[in-house]
């Protein structure tokens, strides 16, 4: 009878050790959850590091661009949209100017009219720097860029088309023959217009000096031309000293 009892005790002891060695499902699940969260955090950290690096590169590019690059880019994009709109109107047989005016609200039209009335295109001569600036602005407004050629160059060179402070421009661009001819024609037009200017009138020593500078002299001549017949008697009385 002892042997079977011993064997039963041995069997019971081995069953308890197997229960202790078996892993707990709840603990394994908790460990797997922690590992999954750790992997997600690791992936998010790598993604944030990648985005930060891209932002640093983009910011460095923006800092190397010219100061007015954003305005130039917006202007070119607007001109491309206008050119595309003109082509669509031409394809439909519509007048682009009429379509554009139909899209403008009454408030915008009134605001532009008020702004146009306030604007004085000719401010007169102040100094040579201001005159040169006005001449430069007038000439640049006359330039009509070739937008189709611009799109081709943009597709060909990509980001290299927009120079930065590190770009080497000398010797990398060869102008087209059409562009050279256009520049020559514009220069000849300027020379022809300059030759048509009237020469400076000789100074008259016997004329009355009623001005302080040339601009004031021109103003006085205009005033005399329009109001001279009404003020002639007052002027004579002031010169004789008989004005009341």
Automatic annotation (TrEMBL):
May be part of a spliceosome complex. Belongs to the SYF2 family. The keyword NAD does not apply. Its main location: nucleus. This is Pre-mRNA-splicing factor SYF2. It is found in: Nucleus. Residues 1-31 are annotated as: Disordered. One of its GO terms (biological process) is mRNA splicing, via spliceosome. Pfam families: SYF2. Involved in pre-mRNA splicing as component of the spliceosome. Keywords: mRNA processing, mRNA splicing, Nucleus, Spliceosome. GO terms for cellular component: catalytic step 2 spliceosome; post-mRNA release spliceosomal complex; Prp19 complex. Residues 19-31 have a biased composition (Basic and acidic residues). The keyword Nucleus applies. The lineage of its organism: Eukaryota, Metazoa, Chordata, Craniata, Vertebrata.
């Amino acid at each position: 009878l002892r042997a079977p009892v011993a064997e039963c005790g041995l069997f019971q002891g081995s069953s308890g050790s197997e229960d202790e060695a078996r892993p707990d499902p709840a603990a394994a699940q908790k460990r797997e959850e922690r590992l999954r969260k750790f992997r997600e955090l690791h992936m998010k950290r790598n993604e944030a590091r990648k985005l930060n690096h891209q932002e640093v590169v983009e910011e460095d590019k923006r800092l190397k661009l010219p100061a007015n690059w954003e305005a130039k880019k917006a202007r070119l994009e607007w001109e491309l949209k206008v050119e595309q709109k003109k082509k669509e109107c031409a394809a439909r047989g519509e007048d682009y100017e009429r379509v554009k005016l139909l899209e403008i609200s009454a408030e915008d039209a009134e605001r532009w009219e008020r702004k146009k009335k306030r604007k004085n295109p000719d401010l007169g001569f102040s100094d040579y720097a201001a005159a040169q600036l006005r001449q430069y602005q007038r000439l640049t407004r006359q330039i009509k860029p070739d937008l189709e050629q611009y799109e081709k160059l943009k597709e060909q060179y990509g980001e290299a088309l927009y120079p930065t402070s590190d770009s080497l421009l000398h010797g990398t661009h060869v102008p087209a023959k059409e562009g050279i001819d256009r520049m020559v024609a514009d220069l000849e037009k300027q020379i022809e217009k300059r030759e048509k200017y009237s020469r400076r009138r000789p100074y008259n020593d016997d004329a009355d000096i009623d001005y302080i500078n040339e601009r004031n002299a021109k103003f006085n001549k205009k005033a005399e031309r329009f109001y001279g017949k009404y003020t002639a008697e007052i002027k004579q009385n002031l010169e004789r000293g008989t004005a009341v």
